[in-house]
Task: structure prediction
Amino acid sequence: MKAAGNGSEKKKAEGGASVQSTGQSVRLTSGEAFLKKRTGKAKKVVLDTSLFVNPDVRANLGETPTAALETFLTFAARIHILEFYMPPSIFEELLHFVERDRIPGDLLVNLYQKPPKKHELSCPAFLLYELIEDMRERVNKGLRLAEKAVRGAESRKAEEMIPDLRKKYREALREGIIDSKEDVDLLLLAMELDALLITADQGLVKWAEKLGIKWLFPEKFRDYLLGAIRRSELLSERKEK
Amino acid sequence: MKAAGNGSEKKKAEGGASVQSTGQSVRLTSGEAFLKKRTGKAKKVVLDTSLFVNPDVRANLGETPTAALETFLTFAARIHILEFYMPPSIFEELLHFVERDRIPGDLLVNLYQKPPKKHELSCPAFLLYELIEDMRERVNKGLRLAEKAVRGAESRKAEEMIPDLRKKYREALREGIIDSKEDVDLLLLAMELDALLITADQGLVKWAEKLGIKWLFPEKFRDYLLGAIRRSELLSERKEK
Result:
């Protein structure tokens, strides 16, 4: 999935005309990318709700989603070499899990809310095949589960069977797949910004790999932040000298 | 879904270098498209199996799929202003329904088998949202159907419930959606060739509209062919004069 405006920007650059960076989404030509690296401009990181909500992953940031988000925002305020992004749909999801009043507003500026440019982006067509074949297999599996439950209901009560059916059906049809617009938002935003994606959702990681998106083990999120703080401090010290 | 090679061809053309048409898949610049129209080069048509298999649609071409295909091929041999295409996956589907031995090989040259260039094509990202939201709703509907069947199996035998469950489940999860790689092949090929898509599958028509693909009412297929025969004959007569 690449920015559709890409070609024209490139052409302008090649034609020798001046190129203005119109926002985070415009891909840079190789020359610009090089300049950017050399001037040490911030790298982009896209974050998923799961980092603050999933208890296994959240643990080393805070005991509750609110505490984890606070820790992250406090860390992020000290990091000048990274820019953190979250699609608004994902941020809204996160707000269901945190106590809004306890989130320090002055720190929220360190987490940009940005949706992907979904009407300008495109995705490789072969992904359609993968998505559709994957869904087709799951749909068939869902039917087999349903049939099994119907047979089971001959000897057991329906109300006993249904919770188990729901669980298995949802696992079969949803796990390991991108199944919501929030998932698509995360992937497209990471593509658009050429950002690092950090998520605890294995389905998203699988699709990030198909799309060439870089990702980080979610349990390393805290270490990653601490490392970025150290590098930010080192850079500031150097500048002061 | 557009040919990825498009941009570079365009650039060459704009740069004044000579452009060679390297195949059916290369999109033409507006200037070339104009030339093509003026020289009366053949328009492209992508055909679905359903035209020969679906009894309602097939009726005016032949009593059996084999007869319908024969009629079509005989017509196609007399049409010089159209080129007919079928993705190989679709052609293979068709072969399950026809008596291979009765298909005249000399006429088959009028139906090109061509797969889409799936590794070069791309599709607009907003379609991912539509596809995934659509599947999500269907998956939920499938679960509700399964639960209903489980409840029904308390008072009726499972073997009585299952055929009805299968039918409803397949309708809910498959109808009106692109759900197979053959469907994707048809859509991508029509996109790539900028062709007219003729199919009796409403799900394909729905997606063709999202993708800006032109389509024809399948019951008008015979009339369309007869019209093309007349125009082909008229053009031949004019040339002879």
